[in-house]
Design goal:
heterodimer; A: about 325 residues; alpha/beta; 8-stranded mixed beta sheet; 11 helices; B: about 90 residues; about 0% strand
Chain lengths: ~325, ~90
Amino acid sequence: MSLKTIFDQHPERRYIMFGGKGGLGKTTFSAATAYWLASQGKKVLVFSVDPQASLSDIFQRDIFGKGSVKIMENLWAQEIDADQHIKQYQNEIRQKILDMYGFDQVPEEVEQYIQAASAEPAMEESAIFDAVVDIVVEGNYDYYIYDLVPLGHALYYLSMAKVYDEWINKITKLREEMREYEEMVSRLKREKETEEDQILQELQYIRTRINASSRILTDREKTAFFFVVVPEEMILLDTQKAAGMFAKFDVPLSGYVVNRVVPRELLQQEIPSYLRNRIEMQDKYLKQIDEMFGAQVSAHVPELERDVTGLEMIEKLAGIMFGK
Amino acid sequence: MSPDQKAPKKGFFQNFKEVMYGMASHDMSRYALRTRASMEHLFILITMGDMIGIPILPPYYSLRLLPYVVPQISTWKRRLLREKDVSDAMF
C-alpha cells in the first residue's frame, strides 16, 4: 500500500512516527511527510526531542528550544530542549516547596536530592516524553509527526512506562492503606473529616501522564509507525529485531519505507563497476525486503543527487514519496 | 432547669467520653498512628530512596512528590539510619 493510500484511508492516524537506525533518513521523511500533509491543508506539527538538532538543519532555521515555529502555511516545527525542560521542572518543584512551607530557601538535603535526581539518565527520557505529552494533549494540530530519536530510546521508554505503571500501582495501594489507618484514627478520636491526601492525587496524576505518553506510541487507532530501512544486510537484520521488540510493546506498525535506492535506470548508461556492484548488491537486498515485508513496504525512495535540506528539496522528496 | 445547670452536665458527658476514649481507644489509635507513621516512612523510602543511597525508580516523577514529604524527611532519615537500641523494645 502506498503512503498516500495509507494516509487517505486512515485519517484517524494522527501520530506519525518514522523509526529506524540513526542516519537512515528519519528526519528527512518526517519533514517530507509534514510538508505533504501541510500542502493538503492539514495543520501539522513536526517535532523532535533529539538534542542533536536535525530539524533545524533540514528546515535551515534555528528552532532549538524555541517552542513551535511556523515554517510555512499549516506547518510548524519544534525541537524540544530536554535540559531546559528539566531545569524549568526543577524550579517548579523548588517553588512549590518554598510556597508550601514558607521557607526562604530549599533545605540543603532536599536541594541535593533535586540535583542528584536530575543527573540520572532516566530523567532525560522521562522529561522528553512528559514534554511530548504536553504538546499532544493540547491538541492544536491535525497531525503530530514525531521525529523519533534512534530506536533504543523509544524502546527504553516503553519498557520504563510498564515498570513505572506497576510501581505506581504498588505505591498507590500503600497510600490507600495509609489512608485507612488515618480514617480509623479519626473515627476513634471522633473527628469529622480526614484531609484529602494530596500525594494520592499526585500519584494518580503521574499515572495518567505515564499512560498518556506510552499511549501515544501504542495507540492502534491513532498511531502510524513506519520503519525506515536501506537495502543493506545489517540494517535489515537490525530492523527485523527492532520490529519484533516493538511488536512486543504493541507499537502498531504501519509500514516500511525503503530509502537510498540507487536508480535502476543508471544501468542503461555507461557507469563505473563500483556503481554497478552497488546496484547489484541492492537488488539482492531489495528482493529480501520484498520477501520479508511484502505488501508492508509503502515506498521506495531513490538516492537523490544531493542531501535534503531546505523546503525545495523537501518538496521534491514529498513528491517522490506521495506522488505529485 | 436553668441554663447554667446544663453546662456542668455537658462537661460531665465530655469528661466521660474522654475517659472512655482513654480507656478503650487511646491505645488503638496510638497503635494505628504508629503503623501509619511506619507506612509513611516506607512510602518515602520507595519514592525517595535515592536520598539515602538506594536507587529506586523513577526520579522524574518522584520529584513531583518531594514537596509533600519535606517535613518528614529528617525524621525518616533518622529512623532508617539509626541503630537499634533498648528503647525500641520499650516504646
